[in-house]
Every structure is written in C-alpha cells, then in structure tokens.
Amino acid sequence: MRIISGTHKGRRITAPKNLPVRPTKDMAKEALFNILSNRYYFEELKVLDLFAGTGNMSFEFASRGCKEITSVDDHAGCISFIADKAKEWEFLIATRRMDVFKFLDKAHEKYDLIFADPPYDISDEEFDLIHKLVFEKDMLLQDGILIIEHAKRTDLSHLDFFTTVRKYGNSRFTFFEAKK
C-alpha cells in the first residue's frame, strides 16, 4: 500500500501483519480519488472512514489536504496503528475504537463524504444497515456522498439515493447521494 498523491505521495503504508484487514488496492484507490478530485476540494471536506482498518483511505484523504477526518474501527490494533501513523506523519485524523454500527447509531455529526469498507463477508442486511443508518440519521451535508466498497457479488443498487457503481477488479464502489 502507498499514498497515491498529496504531501505524502509515494509513502508506503506498512501495517503490522496481525491486523484483520483487506486494504483497498492501490489501483482501485487511485481510480476512486480521480473521481473525487474532479468533484471536491479536499481541503474543504469533512470525511468519515468506517471500518478504517489500516487507515489507508484516511491517510490518502489527509495527504490530499483534508483537515477533518474521523477513522472508526472496532479493532484496537487498527486504531492504534492509525493513531501512531497520523501522529508520525502529522495528519489530523481523529480515531474512534468502536463497533461501526454502534458509532452510526449514536452519531450526531454530518460529513461531506462517508467511506465504508466493511469486511466483504458481512451480510446483505448489514450492508443495508450501513446505508439505512447514514440516511436515517441524516449524516451527510449538502451534496454529500456515501461510498460503500464491496465485493462484486454484492449489489446495492436497490437502495435509496443510489447514483452509480464503479468496478475495479474484484472491488466495487457504490455511490449514494441525497440532494438537499
């Protein structure tokens, strides 16, 4: 894994081997950020990274200038790794060790972009629950988007506010947007 662009472009992210993660591949991440860079000024974004794992996506947002990033994961090792690297690299990333579904249920903040990369083996009901909680809790700011990464076998196009799905190898990014 590496940071694709920004102040820390090219920096390798070498996570401990004992973390239960499946990081987004560099090719897929680069394609996603090309889409986002045509739409947003990263310096203005408030980002929520759910199932943050290694912090791969959070670090990419931070390197591109995002000042408000919250990374949520329930694994202590993942959160510790993200917090340590954020401090070392002087990134402004708030970390929360918490079950993502409990975090979403209790959340009161709004974000420009919410990125969720749950384990590919979660149930369809859990994928739907991520979407349901984000939209029921009105967690997106005006023109905000929810992006859920998932395996190609999962189809989320039936959910409200669906806009598009992008395919990169075995990964899919499904986009949702509530126009306000």
From TrEMBL:
Report whether Transferase shows up as a keyword of the record. yes
Q: Can you tell me where the transmembrane regions are?
A: none
Q: Which UniProt keywords apply?
A: Methyltransferase, Transferase
Superkingdom: Bacteria
The record's annotation in Pfam families points to: Cons_hypoth95
Molecular functions per Gene Ontology? methyltransferase activity; nucleic acid binding
Gene Ontology terms describing biological process: rRNA methylation
Q: Does the keyword Transferase apply?
A: yes
Which SUPFAM superfamilies does the entry mention?
A: S-adenosyl-L-methionine-dependent methyltransferases
Concerning PANTHER family, the annotation shows:
METHYLTRANSFERASE
Q: What is this protein called?
A: Methyltransferase domain-containing protein
